[in-house]
Amino acid sequence: GFFEKIEHPKVGARVHAGIPWLFSEADNGVKAHAPLLGTHTDEVLIERLGVSPKQISAWRESGLLR
Question: 54, 42 in Cβ contact below 8 A?
């Protein structure tokens, strides 16, 4: 059960190393595929850096962000 097959939106299903331990009272295994580039951009800008959603939209419109 160490190796897991996970579907990824860019590369399809791939087998990779899973979690090398098992919890006795919690869910085990990999929960999701690796994040895509930019997946957490808004979250980081808003929650960590205090940037407004309006500013993020302006940056996207200008081409600064994708």
Answer: no
